[in-house]
């Protein structure tokens, strides 16, 4: 049991910290001052973590260059800055203040932004970016790096099904590269409605992500590269490309980062492949949601030609869709060849592990937060005595009214019977949300939901997961109390009725499938 | 009146030195106190305590910068007063902030020889706070030293409450590790 008197002691000691810390906190009393204070602190951040061997090399080169510079009377500080290669910048604060030491090099990023020690993991594209940086041992401008590319072998954590998962090898690539039909619609394809049954503060920290291919490179964004230049600015930007799966469907994501601005887009239903990869700007990650917005970026694509076998990028372009009337020109990216890194080692991680990695490097990490917009109340809650789970809802279909075009759009996906159950059969170790029935079952359905079916499956002698009809299921969860000892799989289908659109005289609606394992 | 003269008079135990100090710096230290405790009665009480503290500490202290010295005293007295008020009223902000510090401990055991390590703790805490990311630093100090509520911080800085809670949570976890490394927690 925690002792409050000990807390009070820490409390008292906190009040005795250095006066300047107390002063500054008192003076920074609004958002503007906070931003100015934060910017000023980042600019004066001095040290960069450099691996010892690399540091020795820099010191040696610096000493040599210093001597040469003194002899030649040249700009030796500029040469020292460029010695680090990827770390170098055009100008440094060390140059201005004269505080350059053997172990410290101060620099600014090539993009013109000041180097930052803040790692943001508060959205999926950023998690994607920082995981790829770790995997590839990239050294982005202004970011620390330990140059250790080997991903750690991480133990699997209890799987909490999510909308968007970085997975590999669990589903089949449908092999199609479908060019979208142009529609003026904004569709929210999936939303994160998962909740935690653990410590709220630790939610999202134990979700496993897996990346099998990560590509990092740096490119130059000029004013000609619209709309990217308007979105993230011009200059030298970092780019990462990784694979991911959404609802069992393979996709890949590309993320541009310029300072603290990010931009991402997603492929249409395919993994990264050897050769041409087409990332559509109208499909993207927003926070933890996958979105589709045909008005985004005037329907353009990022097309990258990859030679995965040799670890090379053949070309990269930004261009409009071929079947749009826009006359925007294509833009060919200049790629800094010495920055290209490709990793094909499978990397499985949780957000906490990634966070700890960067904290260990002295970075300040902004982690995902429990945000009311992201974390809705449970759609479906299953209880069994003291145990409870909130299985993830996989969208089977949804219908939305499009206020722009005036017609209904539908998104249809495969049932979990067609992709998740086969995946389970293939991978016995795959984690799945599990309910241990220690008491009678009960179920809570959120507002607007109606259970349309409950199905039970079990694994037969051949390891196939097949429907079980040994009990009569009356459409309620209570009938599952009759299940014998063993392991069962349950699929609950719920139709959700959303907003009423008076003009169209219809309801927005969707149908979701909730799948979990039940142990008796 | 010149600061050196005030200090000399304090050394000579002349009470007129307090009048001179009050004339010159009362507005300054009242403002410092008012930022911490907002009730005017409490401000007045603290202001009196500031003069008493200066009288009791000079001599032996001989500050080089009298205004900074007085402000430092005023701030400490203000913080002590704030904590006293909140503790007496069992203020939720105080209690919640206190309970949040549970995250800084590994187990439920008492902190052994905590009192022997006051200076170590103080230095470790100062270093820890200094190394925090700037935004987190400000939030942390305001939350756990000035006892500002998360709701108030959210309104003041325009940061969502959940984000603030998460940032403080991570900071507490890191503080725990720091205390462990200093041999403080059990």
User: Biggest sheet of chain A, open or closed, and with what strands and sense?
Assistant: 10 strands, antiparallel
Using the CA coordinates, give the radius of gyration of chain A: 26 Å
Into which percent range does the helicity of residues of chain B fall? over 70%
Q: How many domains of chain A? A: 3
Report the sheet-strand fraction of chain B. under 5%
Mean pLDDT of chain B: 81
* Low-confidence regions of chain A: 45-115, 144-207, 370-377
Question: Count of helical segments of chain A?
Answer: 10
Structure report:
- The complex is a heterodimer of chains A (520) and B (186).
- The longest helix of chain A has 21 residues, at 52-72.
- Chain A is built from ten helices and 27 strands.
- In chain A, α4 (52-72) runs antiparallel to α5.
- Chain A has helices spanning 4-14, 19-27, 31-43, 52-72, 76-83, 93-97, 124-136, 228-232, 351-360, 416-426; strands at residues 118-120, 164-165, 186-190, 209-211, 214-221, 235-246, 249-258, 261-267, 275-280, 283-286, 289-293, 300-307, 312-320, 331-332, 334-343, 347-349, 364-366, 380-384, 387-389, 393-401, 408-412, 434-436, 441-445, 449-459, 465-467, 487-501, 506-519.
- In chain A, the strands form six sheets. In chain A, strands 2, 5, 6, 7, 8, 9, 12, 13, 14 and 15 form a ten-stranded antiparallel sheet that branches. In chain A, strands 20, 21, 22, 24, 25, 26 and 27 form a seven-stranded mixed sheet that branches. Chain A has a three-stranded antiparallel sheet with strand order 3-11-10, with no helix packed on it.
- By secondary structure, chain A is an alpha+beta fold.
- Chain A has three domains: 1-36, no CATH class; 118-366, no CATH class; 380-519, no CATH class.
- Helices cover 20% and strands 33% of the residues of chain A.
- Chain A is globular.
- Residues 45-115, 144-207 and 370-377 of chain A have low confidence and may be disordered.
- With 186 residues, chain B is an all-alpha fold.
- Chain B folds into two domains: 3-88, Rna Polymerase Sigma Factor, Chain: A (Orthogonal Bundle); 93-181, Winged helix-like DNA-binding domain superfamily/Winged helix DNA-binding domain (Arc Repressor Mutant, subunit A).
- Chain B contains nine helices and no strands.
- In chain B, α2 crosses α3 (40-57) and α3 packs across α4.
- Chain B is globular, with a radius of gyration of 19 Å.
- The chains are: A alpha+beta (520), B mainly alpha (186).
- At the A-B interface, α1, α2, α3 and β17 of A face α2, α4, α5, α6 and α7 of B.
């Amino acid at each position: 049991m925690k002792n409050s008197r000990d807390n009070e002691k820490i409390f008292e000691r906190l009040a005795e910290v250095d006066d300047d810390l107390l002063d500054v906190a008192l003076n920074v009393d609004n958002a503007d001052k906070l931003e100015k204070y934060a910017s000023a602190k980042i600019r004066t951040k001095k040290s960069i973590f450099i691996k010892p061997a690399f540091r020795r090399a820099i010191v040696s080169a610096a000493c040599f260059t210093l001597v040469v510079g003194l002899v030649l009377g040249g700009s030796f500080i500029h040469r020292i800055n460029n010695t680090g290669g990827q770390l170098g910048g055009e100008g440094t604060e060390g140059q201005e203040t004269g505080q350059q030491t053997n172990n410290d090099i101060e620099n600014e990023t090539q993009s013109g932004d000041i180097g930052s020690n803040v790692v943001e993991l508060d959205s999926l594209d950023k998690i994607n970016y920082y995981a790829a940086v770790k995997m590839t041992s990239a050294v982005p401008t202004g970011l620390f790096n330990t140059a250790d590319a080997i991903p750690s072998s991480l133990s699997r954590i209890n799987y909490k099904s999510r909308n968007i998962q970085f997975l590999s090898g669990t589903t089949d690539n449908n092999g199609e590269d479908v060019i979208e039909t142009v529609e003026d619609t904004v569709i929210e394809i999936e939303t994160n409605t998962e909740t935690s049954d653990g410590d709220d503060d630790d939610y999202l920290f134990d979700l496993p992500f897996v990346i099998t291919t990560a590509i990092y490179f740096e490119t130059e964004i000029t004013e000609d590269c619209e709309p990217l230049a308007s979105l993230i600015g011009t200059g030298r930007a970092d780019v990462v490309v990784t694979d991911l799966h959404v609802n069992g469907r393979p996709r890949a994501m590309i993320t541009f980062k310029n300072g603290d601005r990010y931009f991402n887009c997603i492929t249409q239903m395919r993994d990264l492949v050897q050769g041409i990869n087409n990332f559509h700007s109208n499909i993207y990650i927003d926070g933890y949601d996958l979105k589709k917005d045909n008005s985004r970026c005037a329907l353009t694509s990022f097309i990258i030609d990859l030679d995965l076998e040799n670890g090379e990028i053949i070309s990269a372009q930004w261009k409009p869709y071929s079947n749009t009337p826009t006359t925007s020109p294509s833009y060919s990216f200049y790629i800094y060849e010495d920055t290209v890194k490709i990793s094909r080692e499978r990397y499985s991680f949780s957000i906490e592990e990634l966070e700890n990695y960067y904290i260990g490097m002295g970075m300040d990490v902004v982690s995902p937060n429990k945000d009311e917009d992201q974390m809705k109340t449970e759609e479906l809650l299953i209880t069994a005595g003291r145990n409870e789970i909130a299985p993830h809802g996989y969208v089977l279909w949804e219908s939305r009214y499009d206020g722009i075009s005036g017609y209904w759009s539908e998104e249809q996906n495969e049932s979990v019977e067609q992709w998740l159950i086969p995946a389970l059969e293939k991978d016995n170790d795959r984690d799945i949300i599990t309910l241990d029935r220690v008491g009678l079952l009960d179920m809570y359905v959120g507002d607007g939901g109606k259970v349309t079916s409950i199905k039970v499956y079990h694994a037969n002698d051949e390891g196939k997961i097949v429907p079980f009809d040994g009990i009569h299921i009356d459409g309620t969860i209570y009938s599952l109390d009759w299940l014998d000892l063993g392991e069962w799989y349950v699929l609950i289908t719920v139709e959700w009725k959303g907003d009423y659109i008076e003009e169209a005289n219809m309801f927005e609606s969707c149908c979701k499938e909730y799948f979990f394992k039940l142990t008796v | 009146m010149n600061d050196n003269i005030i200090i000399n008079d304090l050394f000579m135990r002349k009470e007129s030195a307090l009048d001179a100090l009050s004339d010159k710096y009362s507005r300054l230290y009242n403002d410092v106190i008012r930022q911490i405790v907002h009730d005017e009665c409490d401000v007045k009480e603290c202001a009196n305590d500031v003069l008493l503290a200066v009288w009791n500490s000079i001599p032996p202290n001989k500050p080089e910068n009298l205004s900074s010295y007085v402000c430092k005293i005023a701030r400490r007295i203000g913080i002590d007063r704030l904590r006293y008020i909140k503790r007496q009223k069992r203020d939720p902000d105080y209690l919640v902030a206190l309970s949040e510090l549970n995250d800084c401990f590994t187990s439920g055991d008492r902190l052994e020889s905590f009192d022997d390590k006051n200076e170590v703790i103080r230095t470790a805490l100062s270093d820890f706070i200094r190394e925090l990311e700037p935004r987190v630093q400000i939030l942390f100090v305001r939350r756990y030293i000035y006892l500002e509520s998360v709701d108030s911080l959210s309104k003041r800085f325009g940061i969502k409450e959940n984000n603030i809670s998460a940032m403080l949570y991570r900071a507490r976890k890191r503080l725990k590790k720091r205390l462990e490394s200093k041999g403080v927690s059990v």
